[in-house]
Amino acid sequence: MRPAIKRVGQSGQVSLGRELAGKLLRLERLEGGRLLLTPVVDIPESQVWTLSEPDKSRIERGLAWAAENPAEETDLSSLVAKAKRRGKR
User: For labeling, which of 14, 25, 49, 53 is most exposed (least CB within 10 Å)?
Assistant: First the structure.
């Protein structure tokens, strides 16, 4: 990517282009007045648990299992019969 010179407008804004429109960026102010923008992802607080152990590994194992075991239609008659046999024990 070629360097570009941008001017800060009266409102303090800088246009970065349409490809970054709507993106969430982290702004770091570095020595010498340099600025570093890094694209980030916003994760809802209710889903943060999926990134920590042991849940992260369990989710990964489940996804790997699902990739190796494609879904198939359930035979409901067989399932009901199996449940009835278990109930007689």
Answer: 53
Tokens, residue 59: 């989710």
Query: CB under 8 Å to 40, separation ≥6 — which residues?
Result: 24, 25, 26
H helices present in 1-89, as ranges: 55-68, 76-87
- Whether 49 contacts 35, CB under 8 Å: no
Closest to 42 in 3D by CA, of 25, 62, 61: 25
24: helix, strand or coil: strand
Short-list 70, 58, 20, 60, CA closest to 40:
20
Strand-pairing partners, residue 69, are: none
| The model scores a pTM over 0.90 | no
